[in-house]
Design a protein that fits this description.
The complex is a heterodimer of chains A (about 140) and B (about 600). Chain A is about 65% helix and about 0% strand. In chain A, helix 1 packs antiparallel against helix 2 (about 30-55) and helix 3 runs antiparallel to helix 4. The two termini of chain A are about 35 Å apart. With about 140 residues, chain A is an all-alpha fold. Chain B has one domain: Cytochrome C Oxidase, Chain A, CATH 1.20.210.10. In chain B, about 60% of the residues lie in helices and about 0% in strands. Chain B contains 18 helices and 3 strands. Chain B has helices at about 10-15, 30-40, 45-50, 55-85, 95-130, 140-155, 185-215, 230-260, 285-320, 325-340, 355-365, 365-380, 390-410, 415-420, 425-455, 460-485, 505-530, 570-575; strands at about 1-5, 270-275, 275-280. In chain B, strands 2-3 form a two-stranded antiparallel sheet. In chain B, helix 4 runs parallel beside helix 6 (about 140-155), helix 6 runs antiparallel to helix 7 (about 185-215) and helix 7 (about 185-215) packs antiparallel against helix 8. At the A-B interface, helix 1, helix 2, strand 1 and helix 3 of A face strand 1, helix 1, helix 3, helix 6 and helix 7 of B. Strand 1 (about 90-95) of chain A pairs antiparallel with strand 1 of chain B, so a sheet runs across the interface.
Chain lengths: ~140, ~600
């Protein structure tokens, strides 16, 4: 998690500095807001990964110092063996019809903005059906 | 059907490796492995498989095929544009048709080909393989991304079928030209909705790529052992997450301006307060700010994946590790970070942007780009070079992108930009950058990974003809455009007078475009020949380095039954060449003596 957190926090710091410099140089609202928003986009996930890095390493100060926690994941360690990653990784769906149904629903709903509201009556039911379907499929772990 | 993945490991299961027999000396398994795993039945088949698959390989192939169809359609439009411009006062197309064609040519190439081919197609197929993952982190979301992309593409093309024709305000959709008053009709609305759909598709793919790379890497595959292609896709995904939400929201606001009476991008309803201050109205410049905040990172969203392809291919065909691995990674990050702070260099001539800020940051991008060039040359330097088709396309990319990059540095200087803005000089620069990356490097990636996709080779002789014709056509097409741009020919004009000395340059440019078009026909022929008379590729025909070449060609469902030990950024090379292990960089050096290959 260390590199991931550093990578994202760096983005936050970089765009924060660039945004501040830009704002006080130009007083241009749009660009300043976008740069500061981008800075937040780095800090939010970067902070999340930093939190988990701290969880893994206990009282370790920031990213350096002696770890007192469980340590890094096998994918973060140079010396990890493949056997450390054995076991269940995740449940992956082999196939699912719901993304297609959801995509078609979104397509028809978007077209309704151009060709007429009546298409919403086809698109929205497809979206709702797909959302229910994919949620149930995820909870059951397979096709429904 | 849901599969719970619990992969085997070579270390725990050695010496009784359950690997297919080695037949080609490169990689743990040969064509037998392909027969054993690649064609296994899994889930639905036929059209139902295509509709329901959440396998990243099927989705990646769907992306690539769809985006190549878009590429050829946009190419046909380009040929009509070139034919129209060959002679002065041409009447092949009406002005309206011409406007529609150049708008849709740019839109298809940028929104529907270059990006989706790279981060939808190649990244989808290759990144999970390169990190040793069974699939993308969110397979259903991945499938949804494809369907949104496909329906977005159809939506955009539907513009040709409605009254008034397709969108005709350029791929940048500048306000107020894109307003309902200036560009009425359903074509513009379909264009906006298409970009909204594909924008969501790109955002979902970006989330998926980041999660896959952060969470599904194999043990030992640290961030600084990831292949450069995967690094570049990670940085591209971050750029997508920065840029595409801005574009999508800008499009929704444009739609509101067109239909719901808002004036976000039009200076209507202004009123003066406290002396000179003007409040209460929209601004066309806001559109330019929002669009280019997406648009310039978009250039690197289109370029970085292709830089990654080149960095994968050059070491393999130089039989060396990539020179300056960490330098490449940091250069990629620097390019991405700087690219987000230079959007207004497209707006120098508006007179309403901070010239020194944007000019300085734009010029600064040349530094990390130069590092990349240095490292690419360093990778080839004193290597055992093999000039197979993917390598030729990479070398073609180096020349093409160098020319596009150098003219980009020129355009980052406001005085030069003032003189050349909206001329064919910019058109030539832009095409050399994007053709150089998306097409040259894209085809390098296609020829390089095609054996992994299908377990069969493309024909080398046809591939080399394809390259040389395209290389010649590229220079013949775009170099005259620089000259005619400096002579003052503006872009986006359907006709020009005969007394300005532009005609001969346009004739040469059109001849070049036809040479390029012919070279693309050779690719189609190559694909057909490969399909009808397959030449088995084996699992690792190039003796390549990275993890995707360890598995069978095509890879089995969920990719791996076993993985090699990962002790460098070249695990497959280390496995196949235990007497010539990769020299690790940095902290990895501690572990070099511990590396004992299995097998």
């Amino acid at each position: 998690m260390r590199v991931e957190a550093l990578f994202l926090l760096f983005l936050g710091v970089f765009f924060g500095i660039v945004g501040i410099v830009y704002w006080f140089w130009s007083y241009e609202d749009g660009g300043g807001m976008m740069l500061l928003g981008t800075s937040l986009l780095g800090f939010l996930p970067g902070g999340y990964y930093f939190f988990w890095h701290k969880r893994f390493h206990g009282k370790r100060v920031f990213f350096w110092g002696k770890s007192t926690g469980a340590g890094d994941r096998p994918s973060d360690r140079d010396d990890a063996t493949l056997s450390e990653g054995a076991g269940v990784i995740e449940a992956f769906p082999g196939s699912s019809i719901w993304p297609f149904v959801l995509g078609m629903g979104a397509f028809l709903t978007v077209l309704s903005m151009v060709f007429g509201v009546w298409l919403i009556f086809l698109g929205v039911p497809l979206i709702l059906t797909a959302l229910v379907g994919v949620t149930a499929e995820s909870r059951r772990g397979g096709h429904i | 059907m849901t599969d719970v993945i619990a992969p085997g490991t070579t270390e725990t299961e050695a010496p009784g490796l359950h690997l297919p027999p080695e037949t080609d000396g490169h990689g743990p398994s040969g064509t037998d492995g392909h027969e054993e795993h690649g064609h296994e039945a899994h889930g639905p088949t036929g059209i139902l498989k295509w509709l329901t698959s959440t396998d990243h390989k099927v989705i990646g192939m769907s992306y690539m095929i769809t985006s190549l169809v878009m590429f050829y359609l946009a190419g046909i439009m380009a040929m009509f544009i070139r034919l129209q411009l060959t002679t002065p006062h041409a009447s092949l197309l009406t002005f309206g048709q011409y406007n529609q064609l150049f708008t849709m040519h740019g839109s298809l190439m940028l929104y529907l080909f270059a990006g989706p081919f790279a981060f939808g197609g190649l990244a989808n197929f290759v990144v999970p393989l390169q990190v040793g993952a069974p699939d993308m982190a969110f397979p259903r979301l991945n499938a949804l991304s494809y369907w949104l992309y496909l329906t977005g593409s159809i939506t955009m093309l539907m513009g040709f079928l409605v009254a008034g024709g397709a969108a005709s305000f350029g791929w940048v959709g500048y306000a107020p030209l894109s307003s309902a008053t200036s560009s009425p009709g359903a074509g513009g609305d379909l264009w906006i909705m298409a970009i909204a759909l594909t924008g969501f598709s790109a955002i979902f793919t970006g989330v998926n790529l980041v999660a896959t790379i952060f969470y599904l890497r194999a043990p030992g595959l640290t961030m600084f052992r990831m292949p450069i292609f995967t690094w570049n896709m990670l940085v591209t995904a971050i750029l997508i997450l920065i840029a595409f939400p801005v574009l999508t929201s800008a499009m929704i606001m444009l739609f509101c301006d067109r239909h719901f009476g808002t004036h976000i991008y039009t200076a209507v309803g202004c009123h003066a307060v406290s002396g000179a201050a003007i409040q209460g109205c929209g601004s066309p410049l806001l559109w330019q700010n929002l669009f280019w905040f997406f648009g310039h990172p978009e250039v690197y969203i289109l370029a970085l994946p292709f830089f990654g392809i080149v960095t994968e291919v050059l070491p393999v065909f130089s039989r060396k590790p990539s020179f300056g691995y960490k330098g490449m990674v940091f250069a990629t990050m620097a390019i991405a970070a700087l690219s987000t702070g230079v959007w207004a260099h497209h707006m120098f001539t508006t007179g309403a942007v901070l010239l020194p800020f944007f000019s300085f940051l734009s010029l600064l991008i040349a530094v990390p780009t130069g590092i990349k060039f240095f490292n690419w040359i360093g990778t080839m330097w004193r290597g055992h070079l093999r000039f197979d088709t993917p390598m030729l396309f990479c070398i073609g990319f180096l020349f093409a992108f160098l020319m596009g990059g150098v003219t980009g540095i020129m355009l980052a200087s406001p005085p030069i930009d003032f003189a050349t803005h909206d001329t064919y000089f910019v058109v030539a620069h832009f095409h050399q950058v994007l053709f150089g990356t998306a097409v040259f490097a894209g085809f390098a990636g296609l020829y390089y990974w095609y054996p992994k996709f299908y377990g069969r080779m493309l024909r080398e002789n046809l591939g080399k003809w394809h390259f040389w014709l395209m290389f010649v056509g590229f220079w013949v097409t775009f170099m005259p455009q620089y000259v005619v741009g400096l002579l003052g020919m503006p872009r986006r004009v359907a006709s020009y007078p005969s007394n300005l000395g532009w005609e001969s340059y346009n004739i040469v440019s059109t001849v070049g475009a036809f040479i390029i078009a012919f070279s693309f026909l050779l690719l189609l022929i190559n694909l057909v020949v490969s399909w009808r008379n397959p030449v088995p590729a084996g699992n690792n025909p190039w003796d390549a380095h990275t993890l995707e070449w360890f598995t069978t060609s095509p890879p089995p469902h969920h990719n791996y039954t076993h993985l090699p030990p990962i002790r460098s950024e070249r695990p497959t090379w280390d496995y196949n060449h235990p007497d010539n292990l990769t020299v690790p960089h940095g902290k990895d050096a501690v572990h070099v003596k511990e590396r004992v290959p299995v097998g």
